[in-house]
Amino acid sequence: MRVNNVGAVALSISPITASMVSKDTMKCNPSSPFVSRSKFPSYRFDPINGKNSASHKPINAQTFFGNKKEFPPDETKITAEFYMISKTRFAINIYPFFQPLIETVKTIPSKTYDLSSKIWNCHLNDYETLIGKITRDHSHVRVTPIPKVVIKTLRQYKDSEKKNFEKDLSSIDPKLLEILMPFQRDGICFGIERGGRCMIADDMGLGKTIQALGIVHYYKDDWPLLIVTPSSVRYQWSEAIFNFLPSVPTQYIHHFTSGKDFIDDAKIVIVSYDLLGRAINTFERGNFPTIILDESHVVKSAKTARTKAVQKIVAQSRHVILLSGTPALSRPMELYSQISLIWPHFMGFHEYAVRYCAAVKGNFGWDYSGSSNLQELRIFLEVRCLLRRLKSDVLKQLPSKIRQVIMLDPLLIESGTKEMKQAIKNYEKKSIKGTDRHNALLQYYSESSRARLPAVRDYISNLLTSNKKFLIFAHHQCVLDSISELAEEKKIKYIRIDGKTTSEQRKALVDIFQERSEYLVAILSITAANAGVTLTAAQLVIFAELFWNPGILCQAEDRAHRIGQDGSVIIRYLIAKNTVDDHLWPMIQRKMGILNAAGLNQNISFSDVDVVNHEDTNQTRLDAFVVKSPPKSSTNATTSSSSELNDSKELQWVDDLEEYLEDEHSTKIDVTAKNVNEPDKNVPSKNEFHHLLETDDMDDIDLASIDLDNITSYSTKP
């Protein structure tokens, strides 16, 4: 280009010959100076000084590019995507914008325009009508329909909703029925209405276990019952059956612990996922019409051996109940294998993945790790088979404190070690008296802390994967250290407060736990952190060990249960059988006798993650949540609970403690977090053991700190 002497802009292309201009350039690039004449006939490529030169015709939009024309969008590039936004309404996302298609949507009587999302939506009754109009009037538009199984399921729900009848639950054990909260009763009805094939995905602490037991007991004519669970919680199931289904004989229950076990005559078999996989041939020969899969998210991958083993067993069953507090709704690929156990062949995996996993085909195959249409997926599954309630949904029905007993896996409790046997033997010597007897008790308590460590670590390891904040209390240094090491192994951020923590450090650590979401665990000494700290960021409190003084336990519970806590607090006591716990529970009950005398003596029992309601909801005694089980009647059933005193040795043990509590000359010492292996750091020395057991005067002080007029601060209120 150049500017001539009259100011006009002229275009000179004379040095360039036609042979230098490619055909593709001439056709495709109107912004290039090499422009096809056929495309733009109004411009002639003449010499610069010719009669039709640019000096005589100044360049403008009309002369250079020709007349501008409006072209309608190519219908083959228009997409109309349909998806559900509620149980009765679907939305239509049209892209790019295409007014004729919008006009078609406007002909539907139930159409509505959502200003916030800028999307049109209609009633489900008009779905086929709109699809028909689009395919007839805009045949080239690409339509992404809602899967047929979704439409069919939602219409069936609409029809069944009209019936609105309450299921007859009278065939379920009365003990279980009388303690159900309303939302738990609804959960049982949900499962029965779906033929005993459902997934209960309630939030932690809302009682998935008790709901599952209610459903399977309704179908007790379809037993044997198989309960598949992680190994760390399998003994909690037998405890739950003892407590909530007393009509079920204890000899019905069989814990499958070896591939050599004989299960043909068992009515209820409890097995871990790993052992099921190793003994799959044994279970394939069995007949289990009813199955509970606890923590079902462990079979989220269809490729694992445990998932394949479960699929083989479930294929033969009539009733399948899945339980999971983390149903992976944000990772739909992980949900497919679980839903397929309840509802086989509901949708092909690839179809499911394209619709809900945003499946993309790459150079190395399909990528199913994404997510799409999650709102529709949730609506669809909640109607068909999935029940999920959060604490916020049922908060008015929940007690402020939910106390639970967790029976640790007895196979992981090292109660048979040489040191443990020696500690028990030393105590049982009738010849020892006074200080020697108390030293023997101290040794027993210390060795019990070591014996429980593998079982405690196994239980905590599962919790660390939940991505939820929790507090964990322990007394011995070896237990605190082991939990800290486990958190580090799992790369979980935590805080730790024990007797070595200064007041300045304590304040900083509390602030970190309260304010920073990546810190999930607070590891706390029972005696050093039972007061003076507020940790309401957590709604779960774990006691890895017991302590002699119930007042201290209550104070520790209230680190999370205090002003600023918006929800219920779940408190779990980890109990290890064949350890000092067998004796501590009864002693704690006796030391709480003053509350019984005040008339606050209603018996309430808690087990596993089950919430138990009672007519009088003022739970004030720690003995109120001790699990009481029937006596042994089968080698396959869980042994009776530690809350029962069944022999003279146990009674003598408690008597010895009570006698020592009456020592008038006991003096107080500072009890802080110290080391079991170093008496000066965690466990009082032999001469100081009297303080660990507490004196009568100390008991009065501790119990006086509990305001009997406002006892509900330690209670469970709905």
Automatic annotation (TrEMBL):
<dbReference type="InterPro" id="IPR049730">
    <property type="entry name" value="SNF2/RAD54-like_C"/>
</dbReference>
<dbReference type="GO" id="GO:0016787">
    <property type="term" value="F:hydrolase activity"/>
</dbReference>
<feature type="region of interest" description="Disordered">
    <location>
        <begin position="629"/>
        <end position="648"/>
    </location>
</feature>
<dbReference type="Pfam" id="PF07443">
    <property type="entry name" value="HARP"/>
</dbReference>
<dbReference type="GO" id="GO:0006281">
    <property type="term" value="P:DNA repair"/>
</dbReference>
<dbReference type="Pfam" id="PF00176">
    <property type="entry name" value="SNF2-rel_dom"/>
</dbReference>
<dbReference type="GO" id="GO:0043596">
    <property type="term" value="C:nuclear replication fork"/>
</dbReference>
<dbReference type="GO" id="GO:0005524">
    <property type="term" value="F:ATP binding"/>
</dbReference>
<dbReference type="InterPro" id="IPR000330">
    <property type="entry name" value="SNF2_N"/>
</dbReference>
<feature type="domain" description="Helicase C-terminal">
    <location>
        <begin position="455"/>
        <end position="612"/>
    </location>
</feature>
<dbReference type="GO" id="GO:0031297">
    <property type="term" value="P:replication fork processing"/>
</dbReference>
<dbReference type="Pfam" id="PF00271">
    <property type="entry name" value="Helicase_C"/>
</dbReference>
<feature type="domain" description="HARP">
    <location>
        <begin position="72"/>
        <end position="147"/>
    </location>
</feature>
<dbReference type="InterPro" id="IPR001650">
    <property type="entry name" value="Helicase_C-like"/>
</dbReference>
<keyword id="KW-0539">Nucleus</keyword>
<dbReference type="InterPro" id="IPR027417">
    <property type="entry name" value="P-loop_NTPase"/>
</dbReference>
<protein>
    <submittedName>
        <fullName>SWI/SNF-related matrix-associated actin-dependent regulator of chromatin subfamily A-like protein 1 isoform X2</fullName>
    </submittedName>
</protein>
<keyword id="KW-0378">Hydrolase</keyword>
<dbReference type="InterPro" id="IPR038718">
    <property type="entry name" value="SNF2-like_sf"/>
</dbReference>
<feature type="domain" description="Helicase ATP-binding">
    <location>
        <begin position="189"/>
        <end position="345"/>
    </location>
</feature>
<dbReference type="InterPro" id="IPR014001">
    <property type="entry name" value="Helicase_ATP-bd"/>
</dbReference>
<dbReference type="InterPro" id="IPR010003">
    <property type="entry name" value="HARP_dom"/>
</dbReference>
<comment type="similarity">
    <text>Belongs to the SNF2/RAD54 helicase family. SMARCAL1 subfamily.</text>
</comment>
<feature type="compositionally biased region" description="Low complexity">
    <location>
        <begin position="629"/>
        <end position="643"/>
    </location>
</feature>
